[in-house]
Amino acid sequence: MIAWLRGAHPAFPPLESALREPNGLLAAGGDLRPQTLLAAYRRGIFPWYSEGQPILWWSPDPRMVLYLDEFRASRSLRKRIQQGTYDIRADTAFADVVRACAHAPRAGQTGTWITPAVIDAYATLHAQGYCHSVEAWHDGVLVGGLYGLALGRVFFGESMFAHRVDASKVALAMLVTLLRERQFVLIDCQQETPHLASLGARPIPRRMFAAELARLIHSDDAPQGFPAGTIAS
Fold it and tell me: Which helix (H) or strand (E) segment is 90 a member of?
C-alpha cells in the first residue's frame, strides 16, 4: 500500500516507505501547485503519471545523478561543440521545449507523463524563476533541448529531446557549464540509462541522495537566475 495525499498541504511519507516494485512509488493524489512540487523536489520526490491516472509520486532507489565534476564529453561531442553547430540559448522557448519533450518518442514507452496539467504546473514554476530550459537552435529552428528545476545547488533534470544529432547533448554540456559557474554540485537524472551513464552520470543510494539534498538545498533558497538569451554559438 502507498499513502494517499489529501488536503491543501499534503505531507509526504518517509522515502523509506516507497515500494520496491514498481521501484520508488511513494504516494498518490495531491496536487501540482508550486508549493507542493517544491516541497516534493526538496525531499527527492517527483511526479510521474499518465493521463487519466491520479498523480503518482516517486523516489527510486538507487537514484541516477550527474556530479558536475564527473561530466564526460566524448571526443565527438567536444568536436560538435567546437564546430558551433548549434546556437545554445537559455529560457527563450521554455514552453516549446516542454511540448517537444512531451511528444518525443521513448524506447519502450507509449504516451507521455508530460500531461497538460504537468505542462501548466512547470510553466508556473518557470514564471516564478524555478524552472529553466536550455535550447539548441539551428538556422533559427529549435532542434533540441532540456528543462528542469533549479533548487539550491541542485538541478533536477526533467526531460530532453533532440531532432538533430547531438542537439540535446550539446544543450546538456552547456547546462553543465552554466551550473558550474553558479556553484551547483549535481544534476538529478532520476532514472538510470546508458545514455546518461556515457556522460558520467551514476546511480547512488536513495539515502545518500537525500543527504545530498539536505546539504545542498534550504527551504529559503531564492530562485536561481539563468542568463536568458544566447549563451553559446
Answer: strand 87-90
CA distances from 144 to 172, 189, 203, 220 (A): 10, 17, 25, 33
- From CA 80, how far away is CA 140, in angstroms rounded? 18
CA distances from 32 to 107, 135, 171, 172 (A): 27, 25, 27, 26
pTM: 0.94
Per-residue pLDDT tens digits for 14-44: 999 999 999 999 999 999 999 999 999 999 9
In contact, 47 and 5? CB cutoff 8 Å: no
Q: How far is CA 75 from CA 78, 80, 183, in A?
A: 5, 9, 25
Q: H or E stretch including 63?
A: strand 63-67
Backbone angles phi, psi at 123, to 5 degrees: -65, -40
Task: With CA atoms as reference, report the closest residue to 154 among 211, 97, 91.
Answer: 211
Angle between helices 34-43 and 206-216 (to 10 degrees): 120
> What would the pLDDT profile of 129-148 be if each residue is shown by its tens digit?
999 999 999 999 999 999 99
Domains of the chain: 3-60 (3.30.70.3550), 64-232 (3.40.630.70)
